[in-house]
Amino acid sequence: MSNMEYGNIMNVLTSGASSKTARAYGNGLTGGGVQASEKMASDDLDRMKSYKTIIGNVARKHDVDPALITAVASRESRGGAAISGTKGLGDNGNGYGLMQVDKRWHQPGGAWDSEAHVDQATKILVDFVPVVQKKFPSWSREKQLKGALAAYNMGEGVLDNADVDRITTGNDYSADVVARAQYFKRNGF
């Protein structure tokens, strides 16, 4: 979702993480907002750099901004830190890999930290874009991108009104991922 086809990540309006997400993160975070998202992304930056080549390859394949893929991996698994020692499993065993592909709906592909996994997860995300575009053709590309992110988190059932984050994890999934993506974009991704 690099520059124009899916919208420019730097042009997406975002409120960042909710205070609920910030508190769950710990490390002294209590208040939400863009600043909280940036702090969480900053904490994951060094880990995410080790996946930069994989992410870049997948981003080119799917014409997706690498910062967005990085942000999803940061939100979903803290760049692998939240799932180390679990064979890539999170979300009570339902999520798999850096980007936490939901095993209830998808057969996971590749090792939890592999290019095959990142490719599969990114394709799942990209496949939600036309669903959002069809349902909300009047939305800007940037708003449609937020809708696709929310659907990646909770399925297309979240797409019944404009408040796409109202039932996502932490009630902020797309807002937090966008804020993290903007941080990663400014920091080399």
Report what the structure shows.
It comes from Gadus morhua. With 189 residues, this protein is mainly alpha-helical. The chain has a single domain, classed as Lysozyme (Orthogonal Bundle). It contains seven helices and three strands. The chain is globular.
Chart the SSEs and their pairings.
Elements: H1 19-25, H2 34-49, H3 52-62, H4 66-77, E1 89-90, E2 95-96, E3 101-102, H5 115-135, H6 141-154, H7 173-186
EC number: 3.2.1.17
Domain Transglycosylase SLT: 57-161
Pfam families: SLT
Placed side by side, the strands forming the largest sheet appear as: 1-2-3
- Gyration radius, to the nearest Å? 15 Å
Can you write the helix and strand succession as a string? HHHHEEEHHH
Fraction of helical residues: 40-55%
The second-level CATH architecture is Orthogonal Bundle
Briefly, what is this?
With 189 residues, the chain is mostly helical.
List the main descriptive attributes of the protein structure presented here.
single chain; 189 residues; mainly alpha; Lysozyme; three-stranded antiparallel beta sheet; 7 helices; 3% strand; globular; Transglycosylase_SLT_dom_1; lysozyme activity
